[in-house]
Amino acid sequence: AHLPFDMSSYRGFRFPWDGHPRQPPAVLADLNNTGEETIVHMSWNGDSEVGAWRVLAGARPGALSPRATLAATSFESLTILPSKYAYAAVQALGAHGQVLASTRAARVVSYAASLPGSR
Asked: Helix (H, G, I), strand (E, B), or coil: what is residue 111?
């Protein structure tokens, strides 16, 4: 924050806040450098209620199965699945395990395609 030059004080208030984004969560998945594991990155910018993430993966967008569940501990999370998958998606879970929102299935990209400047 910046105050005008002639202002010498300010007041701030803290209130409980809940974020409910209009956009769905984001997911990006790529293979590790050996091509044997799938790395899934997830986030939901502005949401304050995600307690955990359920990671789904499979060979086709319509055939995804739960592969991992992890606690949401920061703005962005990631997990490494010990197998190679073609598609991945995530579900944002609330404090009681209810699904808050889901992503669409994302195609898993190769390690080389995930590097900066590869597009």
From this structure: helix
